[in-house]
Amino acid sequence: MSTIRLIAPSGFCVNQAAAARGIERLEALGHRVENQSVVPRRFQRFAGTDAQRLADIQDLSALADECDIVLAVRGGYGASRLLENIDYASLGRAFRARPPIICGHSDFTAIQLALLSQTGTITFSGPMLAGNFGAQEFNDFTWQHFWQAISEPRFTLNWQSPTPACSATGTLWGGNLAMLVSLIGSPWLNVIDGGILVVEDINEHPFRVERLLLQLHHAGILARQKALILGSFNGATLSDYDGDYDFNEMCRMLQQRLSIPVLRGLPFGHQPETVTLPLGAFGELHHNGQTASLTVSGHPVIRQKKAAQPLR
Fold it and tell me: Name one GO biological process term (predicted).
C-alpha cells in the first residue's frame, strides 16, 4: 500500500466529517495518511496562513522517499496567493529526481499549471480528500480511474460525445476553467502549443462558461490547440430569462467560432464520478462521431501498483 501526504493550500475544510471519513477509508484500504494536521488548520477562510499553506507546497521538495502520493484536502480559494513565493527551482530539482504523484483539482489547478509552466512537472487533476474520498457514498468509478491513472503508464478513456469525428495528438493540459483563465498573462501559465486542452468547472452559468472560453479564444489560446474537451459543468440553475439558451446552445456557438474540434461529455471535474487526468502528459485523441477515446502516456506512476478494493 501507499503513503499519502495531505496538503491544504487553498480553503478551510468546512466539512471536517467528510475529511475524517476520507482518511478512515484510505487507511482501511491499507494506506498510510500523513500530515493530517492540515485538515483542521484554519486562518480566516483559508486552510492556514499564507506561510503555512506555502510550506505545504515547499516542503514537497524534501518529500520522504516512502511517500508515494500527495493529495489536496479540498479546493476553495487561496492557491493564487502563493504562486509568486514558491521556490520552483528547488521543487523542480526534487521532482526531476523522483516525480511524486500529486493530485487535486479546482483551486489547486493554479499550482498545478504553475508547476507545469515553471518546472515541467506533470500532476494529476483528480479526486481530493474531502469531496471525493470522503463523500457520503464512495464512488467506485472515481477510485478505479484514479488508481488507473497513477499506476498505468499508458491508459485509455472512452466516452460518448455528440460531436463530429476528429483525431488529435499533443500535450494534455488544463483543469479548472476559471483558474486557468485567471492565470492568462502571468508567468504561471505557459500556454501549450498544439495541445489537447481539457477544462471543467462548477456553479458557473452557461453564459459565464461562454465568457471564460471566449476569453481563451480572444487571447489566441484556443487557436493554438489541437482540440478542446469540455468536462463537467454542473451546479448552474437556468431561468425563464435564458429562453432557449443553455449549455448545448453555448457549445454550438463555440464550435461555429472555433477551427478546432470541441468535444463534450467527458466525466471529469466537480462531480462524484470523475476520471483522473495527468496534466502535461501526452494525449492521443480519436473520435468516430459517436465514441471518443483518449489515450494518455508519459506521466509518472506509483511504485506500488496493486490497488485495494474500494470500501463503502
Answer: proteolysis
